[in-house]
Each structure stands twice: as structure tokens, then as C-alpha cells.
Predict the 3D structure of the following.
Amino acid sequence: MSIEDKLSGLAGGLPDGISEGVALGTGLADGYDLYPSPLGEVVVTFNTEGVSSLDLATKGYETRFADRHGRRLLRAEPPADWGRHIPEAMEAGTPGRLPVDLRSRTAFENRVLHIAATIPRGEVRPYGWLAREAEKPGASRAVGSTMARNPIPLIIPCHRVVRSDGHLGEYSLGGPHNKWELLTHEGVEPARLVELAEHRVRVQGDPATGVYCHPTCHVIRASGQWNVVDFTSTAAAQSAGFRPCEVCRPG
Amino acid sequence: MDDLTAALAGDLDGAFPTLVESAGPGLYWGLRRLCGDHQEAEDLTQETFIRAYRSLGGFDRDRFDELRLSPWLWTIALNLGRNHLRSRSRRPTFVDLHEHAASEDPEPPDTVAWDDRLSALPINQRRAVVLRHVVGLGIGEISEATGRPEGTVKADIHRGLDRLRRVMEQEK
């Protein structure tokens, strides 16, 4: 056998894993891994841009992902640069240092989702507040549908966005009972929100500071609940001489 | 333009997996013979394709017309320096759920001695010999991939083979 023949025998087929690695590196496929959450096991998907979706790890999530995103899913480890931030982002309920891939969303939806991500753990805000913060005060319905199509629930905390009348509203990740579950897990008492809603309380004022807040804002809660004043509208709070909180910006 | 290049020009995302399947084995085994390490060859192969994909996304019709896939891919592969490993931490890494782990070395052990023989060659001879006889590129393609004149490539191959023969004589 000539040396040339021996050299040509030193090649073979494509080793396993390379074409999958290329698909992940080019973004033709997203990777996924499973993580525990208060709602049970969830599937987190990611690509070179960041985390792209989160779904309950129930039957058919690969098909659901392919339908929604038009890419296939491969079991993978997240990029070493930021993969370790996934559990902490899920626990905090905000991306923090975790990059998120919202390229599939419109510019308005991006803005709304990023604002939703700023709602602190243990607090809720109405859809109308989010519309106002996004500088589209009349767009509560559009905000609602943006939340319904939030690709990364838990990490972008759409569970902290509730109806303006205080009722919890819909939740895309398995239904409203999961929203209740998550808010309870974060220390919000959903039953209290419903009770306030029944009394049509929208904001509460602290006589000591003259500031009114959303009822779950940490500023008003820090004041102690015993002497807060309930208001059915921001106008009522203002005419009683209160000014809006600069933290929760109740409008 | 060959069929695959035309397919890439028409539908990059749809045709790219075919490019990986057809050019992947040559790239991997060529790189494997050049660097002597499975993990590094795997990384370099993936990185070459990822860069190729990004470049192709910006190609216009003229660039596709003059594109010769194999030498172009090898230009990218040979230009990937040592710093390619940094980009690895920015992308997801595939986890093979079947037990024959993805990182398993596919190399039959009796051919490992070749890496020692090849590593005795100067880099230009080694590249030329591997691209010609392991990967199967033509002289013109190697010249294009390495940026060296065809005459020089021929001489590199000739000298490289001579040297390999001498090394093997000494082994006996």
C-alpha cells in the first residue's frame, strides 16, 4: 500500500455531535435544558443571543417550540458565559445579568416586556400601568396580549401584571391558578389583592409621608399597614393631598 | 456555480445542513490530522462552519458566483487561530443523550502513530500533504486555501511525502 493510500485512509465520516454543534452555533437550532421551578419542571431554551423561551416541561414542548419559533430544539448546555445565571434569574423573576432573545417580538412588545421585567419580586402592577410606562396609555389590551405571548415567563415576570380592578387575570404558563401559585410563592397574598379589588381600592396613601402607592409597593408596605388610607383612584389620592410614589409610579 | 452553492444562495438556512454533511468529514479529518486532537478538531470544525454561515448570510449573487466552497472553507479553518476557544463559551454546547457520548474519540487507535509522523513535517508541508491526500483537495484548491502558489504547493507535497517515507523507513 502506497503512502498516499495510507494517508487517504486516515479520514472517515463526520463524528457524532458536530452537525448539532454547528446548528446550535449558527442559530439554526436552539438548545434546551430542564430546570426546577415553583410550577414543577420547566424547559428553558437558549441560543447565542440569550434565553429564548421557557415552557412547562409537559408533553410536546419540542413541537410547541418549533411551531412558535420555527427552529428545532437540541438538548444542550447553555453558553458558559451566562448559563449559570439561568437559575438565579428564575428565582429572582427578572433577567438580571441573563441575556434574553426577544427578536421574535415587535419593538413595542420588547419595550413592554423589558418594563415588566422591572417589577420587583413580591409586587404586582396593573396592565394600564405598563401601557403608561411604555408611553402608550391607551394600549392596555395590547399590553395584555403581549403578556399572553411572553416567550420567557417566570424570567420576564408577566405573572406580576394583573388586571386594573385587582383581579389576577389570565396567565399563559398553564392558567390563572399558576399565577396565584407564583405570587403566593413570592409573598404576595393574592387573596388580599382580591379583597382590595372588591373594595375597589386602587392605590394606598401613607399619611406620614403623604405618598400614595400601588398596594403591593414595598414603599407603602414598609410604612406598616395599620394607618394607610385607601383610595379608589389616583385622582382621589391627589385631591386628598397625596403625591405619587416615585418608586412604583402609580400615575 | 455547483448545485450546493446554488442551493445555499437560494435558501441558506435550508441548505446549510447539507453543506455540513458533505464538507464536514473532510474538514474534521483534515483538521484532526493537522492538530492531532479530537476535541480541538471538533471545535475548529464547528467554528469554521459557524463563521462560514455568518459570512454566507452577507454574500450577494456575485460572491456566490465566484465561491469555491472547499478552498473557501479551508481558508477559514486555517485562519482560525488559537483564540477560537474563546468563542466556544458564547454558544450552547450539544449534549448527546445517547450513551455513546458526543465527545468520544472516533479514532481507530492504530492510526494514531500518523499524527507523530505528520507532526515531524514543517507546517507548510504538513498542510499541503494533509489537504491533498487526507482531505482530497486538488492542487489549485490547496493553493487557494493556503494562499501559496501552485508550484510551491506541489513542492510542499513532494517534500512532505519524501520526508514521511524516510520517517517510516527509520521506524523499520
